[in-house]
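Translate structure to sequence.
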């Protein structure tokens, strides 16, 4: 009798499950973790770091109070939070450096001690600044009171220690993009599939030329997925990248033109090529001729 009751209960349970299947609730994918800082490694430049995180190098420099030629050191911590990216106008507590400004004149203009202003912006003596650089002028939370004597001392320091700004890079004009190597396109530009450039197939051990004249701002193999990489700056807005080389034949800081050989490819003749405008990947096919 007990066996029959047990069989009857099991049958009811099976029928109940078949008529009322468990509901499935869709869940949104959790948000990805955003990296907010980067520790500089040996061989990296600000350009390679900006390239790695798809940032505009000028925005990254401003966020870290860096000026050209954007000197960084291994172990240095950089913020990747670009709070001022594509801002319109200057925020109240910030100041956009103009031609002819010095840190001393900006400090006096905002009633700050020059050392206080330097500390706020992580600047070291001789306090070199550049036009269009964004400075914080918020001394509200800094316990320093500037007296008339200090302002007079600041003016004397400015006359005694004039600041020499680094010269801005000079770029060639009236040039046209050219193919860096004679090749066929294996994979086209497709940012939706994270293909930010084009994969090329050239002859074995082919020599690579710059697609446009410019200055080498990175040459190394510190960016994962790019192999031996060269980044060339052509203007304040345009850069190009040449990845997966076999040999690099240029160094950072070197000026190159379109007839120079900057690298050589391996036996398979494959290379990855990118162009970025204002920090954003663009389709190289729209530029190359």
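Result:
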């Amino acid at each position: 009798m007990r066996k029959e009751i047990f069989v009857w209960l099991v049958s009811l349970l099976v029928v109940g499950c078949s008529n009322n299947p468990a509901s499935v609730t869709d869940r949104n994918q959790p948000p990805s973790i955003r990296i907010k800082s980067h520790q500089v490694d040996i061989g990296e430049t600000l350009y390679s770091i900006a390239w790695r995180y798809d940032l505009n190098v000028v925005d990254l420099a401003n966020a870290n109070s860096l000026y050209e030629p954007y000197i960084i050191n291994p172990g240095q911590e950089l913020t990747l939070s670009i709070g001022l990216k594509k801002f319109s106008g200057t925020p109240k507590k910030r100041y956009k450096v103009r031609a002819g400004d010095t840190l001393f004149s900006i400090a006096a203009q905002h009633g700050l001690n020059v050392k206080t202003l330097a500390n706020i912006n992580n600047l070291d003596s001789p306090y070199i600044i550049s036009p269009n650089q964004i400075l914080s002028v918020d001394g509200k939370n800094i316990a320093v009171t500037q007296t008339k004597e200090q302002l007079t001392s600041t003016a004397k320091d400015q006359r005694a220690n004039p600041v020499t700004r680094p010269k801005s890079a000079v770029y060639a004009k009236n040039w046209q993009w050219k193919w860096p190597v004679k090749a066929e396109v294996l994979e086209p530009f497709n940012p939706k599939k994270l293909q930010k450039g084009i994969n090329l197939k050239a002859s074995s051990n082919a020599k690579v030329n710059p697609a446009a004249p410019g200055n080498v701002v990175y040459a190394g193999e510190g960016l994962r997925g790019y192999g031996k990489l060269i980044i060339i700056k052509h203007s304040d807005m345009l850069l190009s990248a040449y990845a997966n080389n076999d040999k690099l034949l240029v160094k950072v800081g070197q000026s190159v033109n379109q007839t120079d050989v900057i690298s050589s490819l391996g036996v398979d003749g494959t290379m990855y090529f990118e162009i970025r405008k204002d920090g954003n990947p663009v389709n190289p096919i729209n530029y190359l001729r």
